[in-house]
Amino acid sequence: MPRLLHTADWQIGACFGQFEPDEAVLLAEARFTAIERLAALATEHRVDLVVVAGDVFDAQGVADKTIHRLFHALRGHPGPWVLIPGNHDAGLAESVWTRAVRLQAIPDNVHVCLKPEPLLLEALGVAILPAPLTQRHTHADLTEWFADAATPAGMVRVGLAHGCVQGILADDIDSANPIAAGRAGQARLDYLALGDWHGTRRIDDRAWYSGTPETDRFKANDSGQALLVELAGPGAPAVVTPLATGRYRWRSLTPTLQVASDIDQTLADLARLGPADVVKLVPTGQTDLAGYHRLRAAIGQTRGRVRGLQADLSALRLEPTDDDLDALRADGYLGEVITGLRDRQRAGADDAEAVLARDALALLAGILDERRARTAT
Amino acid sequence: MKLTRIRVEQFRQFRQPLEITGLDPGLNLFTGANEAGKSTLVAAIRAAFFERHRSGSVDDLRPWGDAGASPGVELDFTIDGVAHRLAKRFLNRKRCTLQAGPSTLDGAEAEDHLAALLGFQHAGKGASKAEHWGIPGLLWIQQGGAQELREPVGHATDHLRAALNTSLGEVVSTGGDEVLARVETLRGELLTAATGKPRGAYQQALEQQAALERELDALDAEIAAYRDQVDRLATLRRDHAADQAEQPWIAFRQQERAAAERLEDIRQLESTLRADRQRAEQLAGQIRLLRDQLDAFASEQQAVASRGAALELARRTSQTQDALVAQWQARAGEASQRYDAARAALRLARQETTRRDLARQLDELRRKQAATTDRLDRAGAERTTLIALERLLAETAIDPADLDTLRTRHDALRELRIRRDAVATRLRFTLSAGGRIEIGGESVTGDGDRLLTEATRVTLPGLGQLDITPGGGDLAELRRKEQALADEHAALLQRLGLASLEAAEARQQSHARHQAEARTATATLQALAPGGIDALRAEQAGHAARARDIEQALAALPAAPDATADPPTVSQAEAAEETARQSLEQTNQRLNQARLAAGNAQATLESATRERAAAQAVLDAPDRAARLAAANQALVDARAEQDTLSARIEAQNQRIAEANPDILRQDVERFRKSAEQLERQHAERRDQLMRLEVELQTTGARGLEERRAELARDLEQTRRRSDELRRRAQALDYLLGLLRDQRATLTRELQAPLQRHLNRYLRLLFPHASLEIDENLSPGPLTRPGGNGAETGLFEELSFGAREQMGVISRLAYADLLKEAGRPTLIILDDALVHSDETRLAQMKRLLFDAARRHQILLFTCHPANWRDLGVPARSLESLRATTATAG
Lengths: 377, 888
Prior knowledge:
The structure holds two protein chains of two kinds.
Chain A: E1 3-7, H1 21-44, E2 49-53, H2 64-73, E3 81-84, H3 96-102, E4 110-112, E5 119-121, E6 126-131, E7 156-162, E8 164-165, E9 178-179, H4 183-186, E10 191-195, E11 201-204, E12 207-209, E13 225-231, E14 238-244, E15 249-253, E16 256-257, H5 260-271, E17 277-281, E18 284-287, H6 289-305, E19 308-311, E20 316-318, H7 322-328, H8 332-348, H9 352-376
Parallel strand pairs in A: 1-2, 2-3, 3-4, 6-7, 7-10, 8-9, 10-12, 15-17, 16-18, 17-19, 18-20
Antiparallel strand pairs in A: 1-13, 5-6, 11-12, 13-14
Helix pairs in contact in A: 5-6, 8-9
Chain B: E1 2-9, E2 18-20, E3 27-31, H1 38-50, E4 72-79, E5 82-89, E6 95-100, E7 103-106, H2 107-118, H3 134-139, E8 140-141, H4 150-167, H5 176-190, H6 200-246, H7 249-396, H8 400-423, E9 425-430, E10 436-439, E11 442-445, E12 447-452, E13 456-460, E14 464-468, H9 475-496, H10 501-528, H11 532-556, H12 570-619, H13 624-659, H14 661-701, H15 704-765, E15 770-773, E16 779-786, E17 789-793, H16 800-820, E18 826-830, H17 838-851, E19 856-861, E20 874-876, H18 877-887
Parallel strand pairs in B: 3-19, 3-20, 8-18, 18-19
Antiparallel strand pairs in B: 1-2, 1-4, 4-5, 5-6, 6-7, 9-12, 10-11, 10-13, 13-14, 15-16, 16-17
Helix pairs in contact in B: 4-16, 5-15, 6-14, 6-15, 7-10, 7-11, 7-12, 7-13, 7-14, 8-9, 8-10, 15-16, 16-17
């Protein structure tokens, strides 16, 4: 009764340019630590086997050091580890895998399946049917051969593939690296471990996408997990349990601000965020200057707490109130300028001048605020 | 603001208190000599306001040498009807109180209150300086400072604005300029001021972005190349494996060998063919030789016949030529005779012509001889005449100087005699008939008179003697002179051989006549014989000699022929001679040609004779027939062998053509090359694979894509930053523009009332002039009508006097503006307008009088006379001091 841990899409070597440099470095680093946690988890759950369904590396041309680090991160579990290449790290004539071999980086307990042929793990009674990508993109179904592949009787048949299950995840039939729906049943697989989709996803009783163990984008739902798969024996149903592996929660906040309490709500949402959060904040609507300053202040504070924060206030309109102007002591022609900017912002909706007016207004408010603070002291 | 009382004590030169009361709400005129304390009084007012009472930097307020003094100023004034009293003491007993209506303020509080009220600042540290003085600094003109305007206005601008804001409602921003400056600074950090180009951090971000983009592009290209290489590696490996399995070059090698064997067979056949062909060629050569031999025999026969014909022809030609020679010889003889006759005729013609010429010359000569003889005779006669004349001339010659001397002396003598006669004693006598007396030895009768010039004895016969001595002292002298002169005259006449002057005159005239005659004779002689008579004679001799020569030549000529026919002229004879000569030459030429041709024909004939004999000799050789027969037999044999050989060659050629050896050779080449090609390709691919693998391994180890991901990350961050900075720069730029526009609009609004007030004064001082006001409310260029239309000049370019006047009226305008805004005003003029001329000063007084209706003005002067017509009493500081001293 083999127990296996199914994972995929490690994307080792990915960078996160949309964040500030220090944040980006930490997020890249988190991908290695996620693998170390996976190994620990595998040991903790006493799994017999770890299968990795492609995209181990984010690119072919990663540094030698990165290759060594990755395989070193696996040392927390004795294996065996079975890996296949995905579209990011396809098993080309010369690939990250051939380099890993040359570098003698791959430990004995790690099997990298570069050819579509069964891997028999007799000690475990498991036959792995891999569908490695040997081109960057293919429009042929590489799992086609699974059905005809004979495996010794009594061995559990586990398929390992990277691609897009047809008709379920994508409407586009012509999408690259297709996998026929119902392949697990058709090829008499006890389990089909899938990769490519970054969120955990069940296709049918015997086919699952594990998702990436560490979330790397805002839109991936249910990511940051691995699957613990228990197979009672050939033909027996697979028992699949998702295990949390991710460290960071990626959240996208898009509040629409209309009244003062909306700001309060957003501020409260931001206040709840902690060091495990990676956040994107894109507020829309409008706010007065006071609200704007509160929001800016809150963003600054939040940036100090969370792992990463992207804030885009360009869609937020500034509506200074008379109180704002009083508070800023924006009398005389300054007041005139502010009113002019506000009107231009309103009139232009989304055009360039409206954006310019908004930016100018925010700047002016900032300068006035600075000045007020200085005079106050 | 109206000052009503001033009290000063222990203040510089006011060691004793000085108090001035009852100040007028309008004009107040203070007079005083230098050092009287006018400026000290002004300084006291200034110190009361500007200096902190606690200031430690006001030692100069103390009377000189009085370290214990506490300078004090007390001012009473009203603002908006509220009475104020400011009492201030400095240094030793620092104190400040301000009574404002019912309330009392102390110390710094009082000072700050006043500063806000009047619009100035206190120095943060040390003594108060011009930049702190604000509005009072502008309105209180210090001695010699009226012409300085820009700086005081600059220091007062903010206060003026603040004051004016009130009057304009809340239009002006309290901190607008500060914000504007801040926006400008912030913009300046990102954009250049002049062109708005990125600078600083913005520029750096853009440059960094561009650099990263370039790097990324380069890396992308490298990665694409790397990927292509990976794909090539896969293709190469597949092809290599297929080749290795098939080894397609082996089949080609076998085909090559088969073709090569067939080619070898054909080569042997070709070798036989080559031998046969060689033999055939030899035979053909032999046949050719035999034919030549037979042809030679035939041509020998031919030669005898043709030589015979040639001989005959040569003989005939020779005869013809000889005949021609004879013909031409006869003609040459005739031509020679004709030529000789023509030459004789020419000789005769020339001789007769000569004869005629000589006869004519002889006649001419004889005529000339006769003329010359005649001229010679006449010239001889003329010369004889001339010689006679010349002798006469020599005889009658008289020196003109001598003649002049004669004339002069003659005249002098005559004059002397006249004078002597005048002086002489006239002795008149009338004698009786027959009576005779002797006068000086002369016996006289009748009557007459005598002039007695010397003692003369008159002998009266019978009577005695009278000795008369003429009177007059110089008679003797005259006589002696006359005597001397008469002697000299006589001597000269003697030397000249003449009797008298008249004779000399006659001789001179005769000489002149002879001279004229001699000139005539000379001219005649010159005409007859220009070269002289000898030359004429030589000419005549020459003529004679020439005539002799011609006569001899004529005699030498042969006798003339019979004059029956006219002899031909020389030119006719010459033409005839030339024709005959040419005819002779041509005939001779033809004769020579004919002789040459005849010689040639003879030579040809001889050579033809020799050749025919030689040909005949060959034909007559003894073994000729045998050799001819042998040659004919050999030719028949050779032809038979040639036929046989030709058939064999034909058969061999056909066999070779059927085998097509060229194509066979190409087959061998083609199969060999194909095999080689495949083998080489296989080897090359193996090498290529090896190279590619090594290359890919090297490149792969560089971690290109990870590097690219990092670069892309950096680029995205940089782009984000430059984008933010761009937005910020644009927003700042935009904001700056808006603020400036708004401020400019506002400034214009602020300038308007000031302009109004200023124009009011300006019109009085400079009619039709206008003054612009700049953004800082300072007077700008002044425009006024000039000789050439409107003239515009900067304030600074005006004369000192005009600047001073402008300075004062500008300040009055500011005061009006402040007054309108409800601000306190006080104007102090310390010895101002000293550089104004009378007319301008009069205008300024009108202005000041007018302004004093709205503002209190304190005017200090050391020229009381200039201000007498100001309409207010002058207060003399000296008397004020005296009064106060008494009162105190």
